[in-house]
Write a structure and sequence with these properties.
By secondary structure, this protein is an alpha+beta fold. It has helices at 26-30, 115-119, 132-142, 166-176, 193-196, 258-265, 281-296, and strands at residues 17-20, 23-24, 32-40, 45-52, 54-57, 60-63, 76-81, 85-98, 106-112, 122-131, 146-150, 155-165, 180-184, 187-191, 202-205, 210-217, 225-232, 237-243, 256-257, 270-273, 300-306, 317-321, 329-341, 345-354, 356-357. The chain folds into four domains: 17-112; 117-195, 3-Layer(bab) Sandwich (Phage tail protein beta-alpha-beta fold); 202-217 and 300-357; 225-297, no CATH class. A hairpin with a 4-residue loop joins strand 17 (225-232) and strand 18 (237-243). The relative contact order is 0.15. This is Phage late control D family protein.
Length: 361
């Protein structure tokens, strides 16, 4: 019997369902040759779908999609697992034709989610007496998006956006307060890692839902603590904050952090950040804890392949089973790729992070 458990014994379609401009396109799905849907922690969700572009048409034989009646720029493009579970939702931004030497022509659709609106808008702007949540709300409003936020942090006297796209600027602000940015439909979301994925972790058992997995626990880039220092103009005094394993909170659980292992097995190694100058104690604390968590999350990193499930998204907590006491446990998905081709069908590749190592039994 294979290790792990089945959460559901649902029959999974070997071929995704496609919708263009809100309508299901069964014939288009039947002609799908390859599919790649990629989501990263930076927030841009993109899709590439390749179709055969030669066949019967208007009583003869010719190109199938060059009239742009079905596949055209700006059209909504959806990929679903079955009829309800959405794997990707975005709009067509590019069309790529390929004419191989010994095979029929193909057409590839390239689509992105609505964060492309922010990526394509570059501006110089200043925001006064605002929190990062205030900035996110203002930028969302400019693009007709509804904000759904779980963002805390200090109020800034001035924040400057200097010849940056709105997406690059928001990513910068989200990194500063340790939140993740993404979009669902017309809702702009920014939430801390623990708040993004609610409910029970999705269980993936080795030999069942989890088909392969490679994982590395590496102390090379871990630190015992991170210190951020600066100067408070208002208080006319130096500000400093040191962040260590306590900044991980419930994210660590009963595991052993890389910082703790580094200190006990090698030596304490602390890092002082000098390229970022906070203007107050709250900002120093937010930056120190955010930087420490970013380092800590790269302690245990695994790459795996699983059965495709629409719940496998960046930010999802998964519980990997059957990997032994060190590596079984809960991980955070930092990158997800839903893939399809005619040989292997549908599958999902992912990158998973974990701040701690399980304790040997």
């Amino acid at each position: 019997m294979a290790d792990g458990t089945h959460s559901d014994n649902k029959l999974r379609s070997a071929r995704p369902t496609l919708r263009v401009d809100g309508r299901e396109q069964a014939e288009l799905a039947a002609g799908l040759l390859e599919l790649s849907i990629i989501e990263t922690a930076q927030g841009m969700y993109r899709c590439e779908a390749t179709f055969g572009n030669w066949g019967p048409r208007d009583g003869g034989t010719g190109f199938l999609y060059f009239d742009r009646a079905l596949l055209d720029f700006g059209k909504p493009f959806e990929v679903r697992l079955g009829t309800t579970d959405v794997l990707f939702e975005g709009r067509i931004l590019a069309l790529e034709a390929d004419y191989p030497e010994s095979a029929p022509p193909t057409l590839t659709v390239l689509a992105e989610d609505r964060l492309q609106d922010l990526r394509m808008t570059r501006r110089t702007n200043t925001y006064a007496d605002v929190s990062d949540a205030d900035v996110l709300r203002q930028v969302a409003s400019k693009h007709g998006l509804t904000p759904d936020l779980n963002v805390s942090g200090p109020t800034h006297k001035v924040l400057a956006q200097v010849n940056q796209s709105d997406l690059a600027f928001l990513r910068e602000r989200c990194r500063a307060v340790d939140v993740e940015l993404w979009v669902e439909g017309r809702t702009l979301k920014a939430k801390k890692r623990g708040a993004r994925s609610s409910g029970e972790a999705l269980k993936l058992g080795r030999g069942n839902e989890l088909t392969s997995f490679t994982v590395l626990a590496d102390l090379a880039h871990q630190r015992s603590a991170v210190t951020v220092s600066g100067w408070s103009v208002q208080d006319k005094d130096a500000v400093t904050h040191e962040a260590g394993p306590s900044a991980l909170g419930a994210e660590l659980g009963n595991d052993e952090s890389g910082a703790s292992l580094l200190s006990s097995k090698l030596a304490e190694r602390k890092e002082a950040v000098v390229h970022a100058v906070p203007l107050g104690s709250q900002e120093a604390q937010a930056r120190a804890e955010g930087l420490f968590r970013q380092m800590a999350r790269r302690f245990v990193v695994g790459r795996g392949t699983a059965q495709t499930d629409a719940r496998l998204r960046v930010g999802t907590r998964v519980e990997l089973l059957g990997l032994g006491p060190l590596f079984s446990g809960k991980y955070h998905l930092a990158e997800v790729k839903h893939l399809f081709d005619g040989t292997r069908g549908l599958r999902t590749e992912f990158l998973a992070e974990r701040v701690g190592l399980g304790r040997a039994s």
